[in-house]
């Protein structure tokens, strides 16, 4: 099949699934609805594999013109290159696993068909985002995934207990994302102003051939793009929506809020590498925002007791780590972590989903414990996910995280020290989560314990596949000191096939330093693992209630009171202003001013006219007639003039 | 072409003399016929040529270009949808309503097809009569003050425009569109600025622009749903049309340069002010009225920039606004009809009892939020882009509509549809209602995917307007 046709099918499949399930889903049997949605995404994955196999250079597929505006045109056109195909593989690959998982997870839900409809629409939007060959198509998908995210976070808006909280979380996510979107919009406007085009390749080539275009505008453009990234990828200051987004069903958290959508900001930065390379100041901002986010979020994760909230803060923290890599200009390193993170974080989220499903919607880890025996597959795969993210040697997370640490040491030792701290915290909260959930004694009621069960195959199969990927994902980009020949496959793959990346080089440390770093990192992860085992699994250290926590624990559990601070600084003032304008300014000043004027006119009228009959409206009616007569008079007069 | 103009007038006259049992059928058939006829005409219409029509009247002549045709199509479609949307309401069973709505349609089409400035003015004033009577006969009991306010504002605007029309005819000695376009008004100096100001005042009231908007919320809330739809989806578009077709080309030069930025600033204030005020509104209709203020501020600001490309996308946004206004006010009307209240605080949980309504209301909410796949996505993007290119800070401030729009629309939707069910009975959509929602959604999505068909079409006459 020709490549452009393949690409069209990749995009069309989820859209077809969306359309069929959206229109007929209610009447179709559940297996068919879920099967169709899953098959659509899986087929797209297979097609993406053929693209991956036949990848050569950059290919543009132009479908149609959306609008031509002045002298530049906006096309629905797409780009097949190493980066876009890789993202497509992640989205459709992880996506189909999560679709499969959802078939089991959502099986009792009355909104089953609606769920798969939204999920397919999300996949379609996400594919638009990564496959577009220009910023407009990206923006199209960017807004689209935001909408799907809103629909899916608030999916259970009718829930008796949590319905309102769910829909508020969805609203918060949408609005905070829109703040970032406004940044993207302005960035795009500046790009149009500067280059007269939104095509990646055209802009990139213009920059290469015409150094005069490189000036200070680059800083503002990249800053706006980064603002957009902070919204979608939950970085400081726009990160508070992501933990709340856990209100959505767990497969949604895995797909949208861990593996794919939240990495859109990283994709945008990698895609725009040729712009960011010309804006060192923005790169520094990215570096420090990412660094602060990774540390702050890791700290917040320490004392969360909702199994999904821990993972949510962990996601924010890991995304921060990726932005640190982007701040150094090491794009392939960031994308390598995007990939491994997609594996193990999807695994962890789905694992938590399996736990929640088995625990009959209980999410508080204080009420869990000892689940290892009750849910063996979930337990084993979750353990692998935990080890991968904590950086236990030879699992995928170990390699990708080590790459970032190595770049940090090369560029800036202070950043390295902070990162080590964040990585240590990561290991601490992850092992705490793992041991509290799966080891020790069961802390829930006996009635609940009797009902806890391992999930069905449609849920455990994706877990197993993701576990395998989480173990071996590191092989994609082995460091040079292990296998010289096969090393850095991923770096080469991306650099050779993505515009701009071939001129960017990652730092390579000498053998001794690299080895030392790895041993040090492994050491931390293993020590923390043992400590957590003794502390949580054996001693069962755990605060039963919020009152028992000390100051720093409360600070962590309350997320540094960021939500409260935002509420006081932004939300309340806006509401107050709105209230003032709506009730005082608009009504009392503007409207009553007009009334006063009207009254004075009417008073004159009542005094001078005896035939006032008390009906204001009939009076007005005569005024209209009067006006018409007045107009007619002028018309006649004018026609006589002519 | 004569039929396009005269068909609504004929039906209006007919409607006065028919029994009320036929009212809604005649309404639907008449507006349907007008719509079909204009679509048939569209097939043989050459967008690059202007058709002229002389009915033998001395002071009113007609012409139809692609810009006017777009507005005529919009008018006919909206009127048809208004009849359809209200099909199961008592208002369409009133012959007076049917007659007045056809009269309104006649007036609007007259505005959009007049090729003399006097004709433009006469039809402009003619539309006031049916609107006023619809509000008067079918509005709610608090209407008197609201009507008075509406009337005072409009009167003020109309008088100003009348003076300008007379002045224009006096100075140029002619009143046909072509002659006015050819006349060099730049030598009029301050008089030209003043004449244009008269038109702008009338338009600012009608659109409305901040601070001339206070009649809007009150009139919308007191009008029957069908009246609100007429006002917001069609009547205010006369002013935008007047700007594009008449005022900006005729006064091109110092007068336009003088007024451009003051009006853009008023539009910008409207964008932010309308959105902020909408956040805390308690009444659904008022909320949508302020949302409309915000959306129209952006459109007006874009039109005032005056270049062809921006005006094309402004036209897209004009159509989109009609879709949104029809949909949202229909939703508010449905809630009001079923529950006798529009207070957001008194509503909640409707989604549970009326899932079909919840779905379509959600679609229209997203259309209003300009999400991808809808016309607003393209329109808003390019209007903001033009503002940003013209003046960066203006563009940045205007972009806040993206954020604030989400705040008030999601609040309006979620607080009425989600949450604990506060109501017991809520009849889900009647076929006539969901058909309207479906047509509106399809139109918005079609224009979102193929905006070119509209922008290219109007582009032909916009290029000719360019001085």
In oligomeric terms, what are we looking at? Answer: heterodimer
Judging from the principal axes of the Cα atoms, what is the shape of chain B? Answer: globular
Percent of residues in helices of chain A comes to over 70%
Helix-strand topology string of chain A:
HHEEHHHHHHHHHHHHHHHHHHHHHHHH
Mean pLDDT of chain B: 89
Summarize the structure.
Chain A is mainly alpha-helical and 642 residues long. Chain A contains 26 helices and 2 strands.
Describe the fold and architecture.
The complex is a heterodimer of chains A (642) and B (467). By secondary structure, chain A is mainly alpha-helical. Helix content of chain A is 72%, strand content 3%. Chain A has helices at residues 3-24, 30-53, 82-105, 112-131, 135-153, 163-195, 200-209, 217-232, 241-244, 250-259, 264-271, 273-276, 280-301, 307-327, 331-358, 371-374, 376-390, 396-411, 413-438, 446-451, 457-472, 489-497, 511-538, 551-557, 562-608, 616-641, and strands at 59-69, 72-80. Chain A has a two-stranded antiparallel sheet with strand order 1-2. The longest helix of chain A is centred in the last third of the chain and has 47 residues, at 562-608. Chain B has 467 residues and is mainly alpha-helical. Chain B has one domain (2-465). A two-stranded antiparallel ribbon of chain B has the order 1-2. In chain B, helix 1 (2-16) packs antiparallel against helix 4 and helix 13 (284-305) runs antiparallel to helix 19. The mean pLDDT of chain B is 89.
